[in-house]
Write a structure and sequence with these properties.
alpha/beta, elongated, 549 residues, 4 domains, Immunoglobulin-like, six-stranded mixed sheet, eight-stranded mixed sheet, Rossmann fold
């Protein structure tokens, strides 16, 4: 056993005056009395005292010496084997992943994590310091370096669990940076290690991992989303996916509601090691809200993935300005689109035209034009879209990017072209259709700013007579509609539902935290001080009762 203040043992010298005081006997004083009759009757009783009466002064001396020993032992500040004799610093990293809401014993993993952190704070000795980090991206420093246990307990109790699976790596990097200001400081990570991406071994080097939670049965919703379809305005697809982490099938009831009304009720069986999914397809021009509820049979330890919601915004109209001489093919193809309002102008759009889409057929935008989305058909000159090179000799469609959203379902492979113009596209442009390395349709239509160039004259081809032409126009319009998809925050995803712990793959020192008790938080030397106080009360009680007088 070690002592923080071993010089206190020199106070044992105080035992000598205590012993001397007990050895000094008070000198008898002579007093005149009228008669010795009563004393002579008492003398035999005085000289024949019981053994306890003869030893009571010796017992009192032993109690006083024991009291002195306990006080000196407490002043010497004993520490248990394995405890440090110098002040230490520790960085506590709390993992607030949504999976920490899973059941653990009579509580949750998060409650276990908070209790573990509080127990670590209570075990701090005089001079120790700690900092508290709440993991996330970015991580939060809940408390800088401090030795005040009350402040540390307050921020730990106030920490809240998150709504997603936490990326633990930024918090570990921050903790390692804090170690630089306190050389010798240690890092303690309190987590269930259910991470989407595991940190590398260097990040976990010299990290003590307090592992909370054990493997528990769970099933839940890992995907619930409503997405617009490019086939037509208002058409959407609703998708749901269920997963589970047991080795036996899980049965349950799935309920889907649309705008608060019952839409579907299904009895579902999720096979072990597989997923269950279903799709619904419908059409609505108005806003639509969906709610999904999963009720598994039997015990389930993670309830946050049993509710999910999704939302679609109403389909809004699209305003199109066609800058072109009369062209019935373009006007009819655009006018056939649902909720599309088209106006044709020539030779230039009005100043301040705020159309969602502006199509320039055989012309180019004015120099000061700033439209939201632009389509240029057979532009006669160079511009921001690229450099005009010259005519293409015998143009022929050779390659089509069928994976691009703009070309979805638009088969242009057999389009006959009489003439086309070669352009050197601007940097960052994507080629959707080309003729042996020479772009025929190119642009930037996946994100703002949106623009597309069709490098051939529609009147000098059979493109307008093919079904690919109205489909391409529909794809152009559909890309301008907002992709109004709202996935619920309480759908944590497959990693959370599976509750897969990956601590065994790390290089951290894994420790299963022991349950904390209030008596473990009391410094070891306090017990001796409490014993000394108790002994003092016992000695005083014995003395007042004339037992050790």
């Amino acid at each position: 056993m070690n002592f923080l203040w071993p010089i206190a043992w020199s106070l044992l010298g105080l035992a000598l005056p205590i012993v001397l005081f007990y050895l000094i006997r008070q000198r008898l004083r002579v007093k005149p009395v009228t008669t010795l009759l009563f004393w002579e009757n008492l003398a035999p009783k005085v000289h024949n005292l019981p053994l306890w009466r003869k030893l009571r002064r010796f017992v009192s001396l032993l109690l006083q010496l024991l009291l002195l020993a306990l006080i000196i032992f407490a002043l010497a500040r004993p520490i248990l084997p394995g405890q440090s004799t110098v002040a230490t610093s520790v960085i506590l990293v709390l993992d607030p992943s949504v999976t920490m809401a899973a059941k653990s014993g009579n509580g949750t993993r998060w409650q276990d994590a908070v209790e573990t952190a509080l127990h670590r704070v209570d075990a701090m000795s005089f001079g120790d310091q700690a900092a508290v980090i709440l993991a996330g991206d970015p991580p939060q420093v809940l408390s800088p370096w401090t030795g005040r246990k009350g402040d540390l307990r307050e921020v730990i109790r106030a920490a809240k669990i998150g709504s997603t699976v936490t990326d633990i790596r930024p918090a570990l990097r921050l903790a390692q940076n804090l170690v630089l200001s306190h050389p010798g400081a240690s890092i303690e990570l309190i987590s269930d290690t259910v991470w989407t991406v595991a940190p590398d071994k260097d990040s976990l080097d010299k990290v003590k991992l307090d592992l909370v939670g054990t493997a528990v049965a769970n099933s839940g919703i890992t995907l619930f989303a409503a997405r617009p379809l490019p086939a037509g305005a208002g058409e959407y697809q609703l998708a749901i996916k269920l997963e589970q982490n047991t080795t036996t099938p899980v049965n349950g009831e799935l309920t889907i509601q649309q705008n608060g009304q019952l839409m579907d009720v299904l009895q579902v069986t999720i096979p072990p090691g597989q997923t269950w999914q279903k799709f619904w397809r419908a059409q609505s021009m108005d806003a639509v809200s969906f709610e999904a509820t999963w009720k598994p049979q039997g015990e389930d330890s993670f309830a946050l993935d049993q509710q999910a919601s999704a939302h679609l915004d109403p389909v809004r109209g699209i305003n199109v300005t066609l800058v072109s001489p009369p062209n019935p093919f373009l006007e009819i193809a655009l006018g056939s689109q649902t909720l599309v309002k088209t106006q044709r102008v020539w030779p230039a759009p009005a100043a301040g035209d705020a159309a969602d889409l502006t199509i320039f057929n055989g012309t180019v935008p004015p120099a000061d034009w700033h439209g939201k989305a632009i389509v240029l058909i057979n532009p006669p000159q160079s511009g921001f879209w690229g450099e005009r090179v010259g005519p293409i000799d015998k143009p022929l469609v050779s390659e089509v990017d069928k994976d691009a959203a703009l070309m979805r379902f638009a088969d242009v492979s057999d389009v006959q072209l009489h003439d086309a113009t070669e352009f050197k596209p601007a940097p960052g442009a994507h080629v959707y259709v080309d003729s042996f390395g020479k772009p025929l349709i190119f642009g930037h239509w996946e994100s703002d700013p949106r623009w597309v160039v069709v490098a051939f004259d529609l009147d000098q081809s059979d493109f307008v007579f093919r079904t690919a032409f109205p489909i391409l126009c529909a794809n152009l319009i559909q890309a301008l509609r907002p992709d109004a998809v709202a996935e619920a925050n309480n759908v944590p995803g497959p990693v959370a539902t599976q509750l897969k712990q990956i601590a065994s793959a790390s290089s951290a020192e894994v420790v299963k935290p022991a349950p904390g008790h209030w008596w473990n938080a009391i410094p070891f030397w306090w017990w001796f001080a409490l014993d000394a106080l108790l002994l003092l009360l016992i000695e005083w009680s014995l003395y007042t009762r004339r037992i050790t007088e």
